[in-house]
Structure formats: C-alpha cells, structure tokens
Amino acid sequence: MVAGNSSNLTEMKLIIVESPTKAKTISKFLSKDFVVESSYGHVRDLPEKSLGVDIEHDFEPKYVILPKAKKRVAELKSEAKKATGVILATDEDREGEAIAWHLVQALGLNELKNKKSPPAGNRPKGEKIKIFERIVFHEITENAIKEALKNPRDINMKLVDAQQARRILDRLVGYKLSPFLWKKVAKGLSAGRVQSVAVRLVAEREKEILSFKPEEYWTITARLKSRDKNEFDAQLAKIEEKKLEKFSIKNEEAADEIVSDLNGAAWQVLKIEKKETRRQPLPPFTTSTLQQTAWAWFGFGAKQTMLLAQQLYETGLITYMRTDSFNLSKESIAAAFEKIKKDFGGDYLTAAPRIYKTKSKTAQEAHEAIRPTAPDKDPEMLRAKLMPQQYKLYDLIWRRFIASQMSNAIFEATGVDILAKKTSNNYIFRAKGNVIRFDGFLKVYHQKLTEVSLPALTEKEDLGLKELTPAQHFTEPPPHYNEASLIKALEEHGIGRPSTYAPIMATIQTRRYVIKDDQKRLRPTDIGILVSDILVKHFPEVVDIKFTARMEEDLDKIAGGEKEWRPVIKEFWEPFKKNLDKKSLELSKEKIAVEKTELKCPKCGKDLVIRMSRYGKFYACSGFPNCRHTAPLEKSSAETEEKEDLGHCHKCETGQIVKRRTKKGRTFWGCSNWPKCDYATWENPKKNELKEIDE
Questions:
Q1: Is 394 tagged catalytic?
Q2: Which of 320, 391, 427, 619 is flagged as catalytic?
Q3: Tell me: the pLDDT tens digits for 313-334?
Q4: Does the pLDDT at position 182 exceed 50?
C-alpha cells in the first residue's frame, strides 16, 4: 500500500495503477486522502488451457481471473471496501483501458459516479456497491495527475472492444491453427496472426539473399593535386556528354581501357558550383523510431528498449512510451525554447515552434510523442540517479526532443567538374565537398556525418594527376533484418501498433522460428521457413501482408467507434474456419513435412526420411512407430552446430570443439562427443581462453 501522508484511511480514495513503481511515483504528488495500489498488470484474461471464446454465441469471451492475480485481486477488494471511491489510473492506450475494465469486473465495482446504479437483483448477493472513476494522463507529473483527477471520465468501451477484438482474433488463430501444425508438421508448434507475418518477412528476405546473384561494376577515381599541392579525389562521371550509370563500366577490361586512354591527359578545373543546404532536425520519438534508434546507437533490442522506457515513464521522467504520434504540448515546446535559449543562445532557436505531422493514418494525434517531462532536466543532472542503460535512453530521448525545436544545420556543398582532355575523348570527373557552416540542432543531436573539404580551386586551373585507380565492386544482396529494421518494415506495411512491436519480436524468437546470429541479425530457422511456407500456401489470409494491415485498420475503426467488434471477428472467422477444415482433410504430414532420401535405416533397413521437429530437421526411419531410429543431419542450418577447426576438446581430448547454438539462439562452443562429454564454453576459443559453463 502506498499512501499520501497519513495513516487515517477512513475518508480515503483508492487509486489503482498497473505497476508498483508507477504507484510509488504517483503517491508522491497526492495528499492523505489517497492510497495508491498496483494491480501488477492484467488481472483477467482468456483461460490458458481452453479456447475461452463461445463461437456459437457471437464470440462471447469467457474471462477468468489469472492464477497469479488471484491473491492480488483479493487484496484490492479488501482495500476497495475501506475506500469511499475507487479511481482507475491505468495507461491511456487500449491495453490500459482493458485493464481498467477488467478491474471493474474482477473487483465488483458498479457504474460510474452520477450514473444510476444497477438494481440489487442484478448484483451478486451481498455484493457491495462501489463507486469508481477513470482517469488518464500522458506523463506522471504532479500537474498531470492533479489535472486528471479534476477530469475523470467513463471507461472508453470502444478502446476496450478494440483490445478484446485483437485478443479474440489472436486466440482463434492460435488455438485453431496451432493443433493443425502439431498434426501436420511437428508437436509444440504454434501460429500467431501478426507474428506469422513477421516470420514471413524474415523468411522471404532470407530467400532473397540466398538467390541473389551479384553483378560486377567498376569505378575510376583520380587522385589530383591543386596548384597549391593540396590533394583531393574525383570520380569519373561522364565520357563526352554521356553520364555514367552504375553499370556503365562492367568489367576490368573496360576499366583498363579507360585508364589507358587517360594516359597523358591534361587535367583542368572546368566548373565550380557552391550552394547552401539546410538540414532539418528529426521529429521527436514515437515507439517505433525510439526502438530503431536505440538499436542503431546502443544495440538495444526492442524488448530492452521498452523495458527501460517504461522505467523512465513510471519514475516520471518521460511521457508515455507507447505512441505513434509526433504531437507535442505547447507547454513542452515553451520549456524547450527556454532551455535552448539559456544553454545555446538565440541563434539556435527557430522563429516559430516546429510542428511535426505523422504520415500514419492511424496515429493518435491527441497523444504526445515520447519526450522528457521536464526539458530543463538535462541528462547530466540525472546521471547519478539512473542506471547506465536508463541514462543512455533518457539522454537519447532528451536530445532528440530538444533538437526537434532547434534551428537547421547549414552546410556548404561544393561540386567541381574536372576535364581530363584527350584527343580521342573528353572525360569529366567530379569532386564533391560538404562542410558545416552552422551546426544548429547538431549541437545537441549528433548524427554520423562525413565532412569533405576540397582545396581552394579556381575555374580553368590546371591540376596534376597523382594516381588513377580503377576499383571493382559487386552489388550486394538486401541485408538481413535486425529487430529495428523489421519493426520499421512492419510499421511501413501498417502491421502492428506501438504496444505490439516488442512482443512480436520476442514471440518469433521464443517460438524458434527466428534466431539472432552473432551480429544480431534475424535469420529464419528451418522450422520457421517451413511453417511460413505452409501458411503462405494454405492459409494466405493469415500471413497476407495487405490483409493483416486491413485487419489492423479495422481494429482502429473499432477503437474509433466506426465498427462493431463482433462483425469484424465474424468476417475473419467464417472463411478461416472453412479453409482450416478443408486443409485438415486434404493435407497429410507426409505431404508437407517429410522429405524422402536414398538412405536406409541402419536398424531395420527401411527408407530414411527427413522429418521436422520444432528445433529443426533430423533423419528418422519411415517405419515409425515400429522403428524409432533417428539421427541428426550431417549438415545443419543456421540454428545447429557449425563445423569449424577449433582444436581438440580440453576435457575428453578425443572430441573436437564445435560451434553450437542453444535453443534460445545463443552461440556457445562444445565438444563434438556430447552428450558423452559435456564440455562447453561461452567464449570463442579463437579469441579467448576457454571458460567452462557452470550449468
């Protein structure tokens, strides 16, 4: 229990939030008339071991109090009995609204203050009528909390319905499609409505990379000297009047021919162009851009970023961390202006506040972007109070917000055309320079910029050639996704929402459909590719990107009161169920998850086949269940051991050290004689002295 300032609880109101940290922060701002308690997250949900949705009766959900929450619900009921009123102060998004609504049901609270109470006959016998109110706020500050208390509202059932619809859709897909995968592929598999789309994106990117055929091209760079003996580089851009494209010089022979032709050329400055360019600051963070930038700057995963952001929010340092809006309050902009003027001077201020508009059709503009609640608190003032990772994220959020209201950075861009004159051809080389003339917002929010200074040159100036270098290049395949780039792709496709990005990343890795390699790139496992292929071929509505995006839009329309939730679920369910029944009859495990081989079983002599488990492929006897022989594949995928000459095992001395992965995708090195020899280490034997794992 977190009280205001007194132990006198006879005339107190009970405020319920989700987390103890949030409760502790809010209690600092309130008087003895309030007690703040935490629900520790959700208290009700669909049952774990049954569908929990009555399909025959308009998809009515059957909620139960979560086993882990039963004790807490009893404690909150006890506190509510002592209170003159209950205030639900859970987060302002759909999930928070749903938690508030579930608390009303679990605690037996009645309708809102000033509304007619239900007749006694409609209440459980002996149930005490309790009055409750709902308040919301975007930041946990004294002003925000007190303002929210002055403006209580009803529970927004449109938001609750949107959350219910998402939850029921996900349950229907998971509980109906997962058993299909168990029977047709392997035990322990599962399918998710949005997560399956994410796996599809990763699997298709892997296929793009594997099928990619690099194309060769060449560039030619001249190292030149000005009359003042200053050196700079210029790249071949034109031959006569023809502009060179990327593949204009296709091979070494073509490049050598140009280099040979340039032998003895006269080099001269043909034209100099200078222009001023301005760069605007980036907008303040949304959930997805914070996750992407925290990855790029610090290597933080989506789950880690959201955990740190939640800690900063609950201690009152930043605004709510699940948002897709760039909107900023007038008060926060005024505070930013004051801080900028005080610390950097008037030159770094814009003439008027910058207003950023999101391109997303579904963004909640009434919400705010992620920003510091007190812009005057620069990161150094909080360094001692924060853990190192918390400090890094706060520093990033603070800098991005302050920079968003600062003046443009000004650059001077210089382009120099250089003529290499020969009797046969005229070649035009181009040199580019770019230097900062005024740093503007870059004073606060540093970006990776490469300044290139060119020497002072004049038109028609003769130049000397120091070196002419042809260089071979090859086109590269698209990069593997990492968590940040996958979130960006999902957002661009309109899939997922701020509250779902981190759980999606966690789920696809927990299910072993996707793993991280040593560079934290996402790679599909064999089982991930197989499941994705099956869903794409046989259940296109589950993994179709446009269909899933439309479903997200429908959920947004439910939240906005434009659609009812039950018809949306019915529209999805009926064709899905029809197709599921059809595929269950048509498809067999042998058709979709078994590969034939020319090998024979060493035990019974029948054919060996390649089967799939949730952890990957393996050899198995086709005579199963009469013969239960299995063996690992000789060649493994990204998730299994990788053969590499790392020397003999330090423990048994007969086995070889091989690179392996845990079920969660972490790399380790162990003995090839496992399980006879259990030697293992987290350290790469090529880089460090081996340290045994204490497990």
A1: no
A2: 320
A3: 999 999 999 999 999 999 999 9
A4: yes
